[in-house]
Amino acid sequence: MRERVYEPTKLAALFDILVEQGYPPREILKSINLTPDEVHSPKSKISLADLLTAGKNAIRLSSEAHLPYRIGTSIHISAYGMYGFAILCCPDFRKTMAFAELYHALATPLATIKFAEQDGFASWFIEPNPDAVTDPQLYRFIAEMQIGIHLSLMRDVMGPAFTPDRINLAYPEARDFSLPADEIGCPLSFSNRTNQIIFQSKWLDRSANLGNRTTYPMVVALCDDLLQELKSRVGVAGELRALLIRNIANPPTLAAIAKLLDVSDRSLRRQLQEQGISFRGLLDELRMQIALKYLRTTRLANEDIALALGFSDAANFRRAFRRWTNKSPSEIRGEELSDPV
C-alpha cells in the first residue's frame, strides 16, 4: 500500500477538480508527501495509501453531490500511457475487456475489477480496496469514482453513445454524494451484493475502429514488462529486492532475509509464491538488470562484472547471462556499438 510505484493519474484528476472548485492545493495534498508542482510531473510516483488519503481529503473538503463520479469521468484513455494505448489497440472489444482486467495493476488500482459475460449481458464487478471497507463513506467514494472511470473509458473506446443498462451498488442510497442517474442514462439499484455495471453484450460485437492487430502484440509486450517491474517493487518482492541490491556481490540467503523481516522461511516463500515470484528468480532478475546496465553503460571487463555480481569467475557469469538472455555479454556490447549515433 505504501510503496510509491504508481503513476499519479488519478491523484492528478482529483487534484484538478478540487482546485477548480477553489480549494487550497495544500489542503488537497494534506498528509501526502507531494508538492502541487509534482502532481502532474511524469517523474512523480505515488502509493495507493497516498491516493486513499487524497480521497479522504476530498471528502473532507467538498460537499459536491457527484464529486467522485466527476473525478472519474474526467479521466480519459490518453491519461493512462502505455496501458491506455494498448486498450485502444485491442482488435476487438472482448479483448479490450480482458486486457483491462488483466493489466489493471498498471492503473493505480484502488479497487479490484472483474469482467463477466452471460446470457446476452456483460458486467464489470467493482470492489474497493480492503483498506476502505471499514470506512463506508470512503468505500462509496472509491466505488463511484471507479464507475465514473469505467464509463469514461468505455465511451472513449466504444463511442460516446455507450450506455449501461443498470448499475448495481453494494450500499444503501446516501445523502452526501451519489451517481447522477440522468447523466449516466440508466437506473441505479442499491443494497445489492456487489457493485456492478451491466450492459448488453451487443456492444462488444461492434467493430473496434481504433484496433490494430499489428501494434497490439507489441504494446502488450511493453505492458508485460511494466507489470513485471511493478510486481518486483511492490510487497514482499520489493522488500527483498531492496535488501538484495544492498550487497548483490554477496547476497543474503532467503533464511537470512526471513530473519531480518521477522518471518519464517516458509511464510516468506509462500508470500513470494503468491506474487508469482521465486527467491532465485528474483535474484537472477536483479543480477541480469545490473549486468545489462554495466554492459551497456560502462567498459567494465566481464571479470569485473562477474565479481560485482557475486560470481566466482567470468565463465560462470557468461553461462548465467546466456541462461537469462539467450545472448552472450559480447553480443550485448556489440548491439550498443552498432547503434546509430
Can you describe what's shown?
There is one protein chain. By secondary structure, the chain is α+β, with helices and mostly antiparallel strands. It has 16 helices and five strands. It has a five-stranded mixed β-sheet with strand order 1-2-5-3-4. Helix 8 links the parallel strand 3 and strand 4. The C terminus is likely disordered.
The major beta sheet can be summarized as:
5 strands, mixed
| Widest sheet: strand ordering | 1-2-5-3-4
- What is the structural class? alpha+beta
N- and C-termini, Cα separation? 42 Å
What is the element string, with H for helices and E for strands?
HHHHHHEEHEHEEHHHHHHHH
Which whole number gives the mean pLDDT?
90
Query: Uncertain regions: pLDDT < 50 for 5+ in a row?
Result: 336-341
Overall geometry: globular
Radius of gyration: 23 Å
Secondary structure tally: strands = 5
Strand content: 5-15%
**What count of helical segments does DSSP give?**
16
Descriptive keywords:
globular; 16 helices; disordered C terminus; 5-stranded mixed sheet; 5 strands
Task: Produce a short descriptive summary.
By secondary structure, the chain is of the alpha+beta class.
Task: List strands and helices in order, with pairings.
Elements: H1 9-20, H2 25-28, H3 48-61, H4 67-73, H5 81-89, H6 93-102, E1 111-118, E2 121-128, H7 136-158, E3 166-168, H8 181-184, E4 188-189, E5 195-200, H9 215-233, H10 235-246, H11 254-261, H12 265-274, H13 279-297, H14 302-308, H15 314-325, H16 329-338
Parallel strand pairs: 3-4
Antiparallel strand pairs: 1-2, 2-5, 3-5
